[in-house]
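quick one, 300 residues, struct below
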Amino acid sequence: MSLRDAIDLANRSLGPISIGFDPSLFATPKVIRLNGTELNLSGNTFGAITLAGPAAGVTISGNKQSDVMTIGRGVVARLSNINIADGGDINAGGPIFSTGGLFNNGDLTLTNSVISNNEGSFGGIINTGRAVITRSVISANQTQNQYGGGINNSGVLTLNQSTVSGNTAMYANGAGIYNDGVASINDSTISGNMAPVGLFGETFTYGRGGGIDNLGTITLTNSTVSGNSSDIRGAGIENLGIVTLDDSTVTDNSITVGDGAHPAGGGIDNVNGARLVIANTIVMAPSSRAHRSAEWRWTA
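---
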């Protein structure tokens, strides 16, 4: 039975169901390449659908022909030891019209997994439901002209012991995480994400919020935001909502274009009367940079 057939069966189930992998066939790492159609977990709202990857690891690849996976409203999904990669339909209007890697509109638990090399309107993960991500890596994903290269959250997100790194927001905001919902980041690292300037059509669009772009409510505890960059504002964090930092570090985040016309906060840019609460936290700008900016920018 193929993975798609197993998911179709799970969707028709009237209770909890688990999908596994034959250990004799998956004794070494394998790649499952989709055929141009994403996997869709939907219909079964009567119990959790559990998809547990083999010990050797398995990658589910969109092969740059489709998004990889959608979890529908009301579905409880438990994914572990899964790599989701190469999502984004570059053949049907370009990646800008594609979700990218994983779209969750249900109740998702993602553990010990990797979301990488996906590109689309929302890059690696878009969450409009509830998502708990633990001991996972979200890296090398890209959004174009939308928000959230690594993660776009407008639902409820909890990120535990995870890394969001090396993601890009082209002509967009929130290269690492774009949050317009409620997010809790615990014991995690947001690093090396980039929101560069780009020419979209005939208009130059400047990137903001290299590490995190927040319009909602986000709390970081014992976490690090470092080595991120953006063009004009909030290389580490741009905040237009509510940010709470506790026992965390915001360091070495850099503005690449910012100047007198585009003042910016290299570490944190707190704008438009946004609320920022800091406890036991270090915020520092780079010690030397061609376009070094202050750690803070605060506007009423």
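Helices lie at 3-11.
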